[in-house]
Specification:
By secondary structure, the chain is α/β, with parallel strands linked by helices. It is built from twelve helices and eleven strands. A seven-stranded mixed beta sheet has the order 1-7-6-5-4-2-3, with helices on both faces. Strands 8-9-11-10 form a four-stranded antiparallel beta sheet, with helices on one face. Helix 4 packs across helix 5. The radius of gyration is 22 Å and the shape is globular. InterPro entries: Aminotrans_II_pyridoxalP_BS (IPR001917), Aminotransferase_I/II_large (IPR004839), HisP_aminotrans (IPR005861), PyrdxlP-dep_Trfase (IPR015424), PyrdxlP-dep_Trfase_major (IPR015421), PyrdxlP-dep_Trfase_small (IPR015422).
């Protein structure tokens, strides 16, 4: 059985849109795409009057090297959100198929499924926000085509042990695609499971440059998967998903000097994570700080609403996650610079002496 047998048959046979840039490129006089012959004002030399390469080879190579995969195992799009949406559209028939998620977790899996009119099966994490493998496997039905695991998880911050991910992958063979979202893996001691792609043809991994690589505004996300899955996703991707300035920003961030800078900042975040966790636990009114492998902390309060309002009045914005199951008393705090973190603590401690 091929992993493509899990995909929608109409997508497997779809004739993809063939853009002008795909059909012909590299010429000296480009008259095939109805573009302007003149660059716009303020284009900074990007050549923005021309449509970009849908999957630019320099960026594919840089990301393939970074993630330890082959270029044919890599799709690059507008953040991980686009890859999630394309996976759901490729594998889930409207009104028939389903995805499986473990709340509390990243909300876009369910949003993309519901837009596609695919069902969402939920298997909650345990009370300490760990994956319940047995419950997950028991909840599988023939309708489930995609199983999403977020590791480290958003919003709790916990990682899924590698052996649990492999256990799920083994159980899903021939049944569903396992999608492991590693948006925060750079901040964790646990390494990526991308090295398992050649072992499990139904495994897919989501990566992003938004977090550790400081490119949230550029919207560069990657899907790592079996070459057949990548080819399928490229059938239904938008004609030109990657704007030229965003590609240039990504290549700069992935340069030798950019990688040194990113790793310096990751080290600061990891250090601040320990510092802030310890400091927050000493503040009256803090019930607990969840263990985190990400660049944020989920913190429980006696009165999370009052703390949220106090920080907001001081110009400090954190994420209210009280709507998530098991986190009705919690706020999610992204780790900022040491100075920003110190200010957050100072506001929290005001009037508590």
């Amino acid at each position: 059985m091929s992993v493509l047998d899990l995909a929608r048959p109409e997508i497997r046979t779809l004739q993809p849109y063939s853009s002008a840039r795909m059909e012909a490129g590299g010429g000296q006089i480009m008259l095939n795409a109805n573009e302007s012959a003149w660059e716009p004002a303020g284009a900074f030399g990007f050549g923005c009057n021309r449509y970009p390469d849908p999957q630019p080879q320099p960026l594919l190579q840089a990301l393939a090297t970074l993630y330890g995969v082959r270029r044919e195992q890599l799709f690059v799009g507008r953040g991980s959100d686009e890859a999630i949406d394309l996976l759901v559209r490729a594998f889930c028939r409207a009104g028939q198929d389903a995805i499986l998620v473990q709340p509390p977790t990243f909300g876009m899996y369910a949003v993309s499924a519901r837009i596609q009119h695919a069902a969402v099966i939920e298997v909650p994490l345990t009370q300490d926000f760990q994956l319940d493998v047995a419950a997950l496997l028991a909840a599988l039905t023939p309708a489930v085509k995609l199983v999403f695991l977020c590791s480290p998880n958003n919003p709790s911050g916990s990682s899924i042990p590698r052996q649990d991910i492999e256990r799920v992958a083994q159980a899903l063979a021939g049944k569903a695609v396992l999608v492991v979202d590693e948006a925060y893996v750079e901040f964790s001691d646990q390494r990526s499971v991308a090295d398992l792609l050649d072992r499990y043809e139904h495994l897919a991994v989501l990566r992003t440059l938004s977090k550790a690589w400081a490119l949230a505004g550029a919207r560069i996300g990657s899907l790592l998967a079996n070459a057949e899955i990548i080819a399928l996703i490229r059938r239904i991707m938008p004609p030109y998903p990657l704007p030229l300035p965003c590609v240039a920003a990504a290549l700069a961030a992935l340069s030798s000097s950019g990688q040194v800078l990113a790793r310096d900042h990751i080290a600061i975040v990891r250090e601040q994570r320990a510092v802030m966790s310890e400091a927050l636990m000493k503040v009256p009114g803090v019930r607990g700080v969840l263990p985190s492998d990400a660049n944020f902390l989920a913190v429980r309060f006696d009165d999370a609403g009052e703390v949220y309002r106090r920080w907001l009045q001081a110009g400090i914005v954190v994420r209210d996650i009280r709507r998530y199951p098991g986190l009705q008393d919690a706020l999610r705090i992204t780790l900022g610079t040491p100075e920003e973190n110190a200010r957050l603590l100072a506001v929290l401690n005001e009037g508590r002496a």
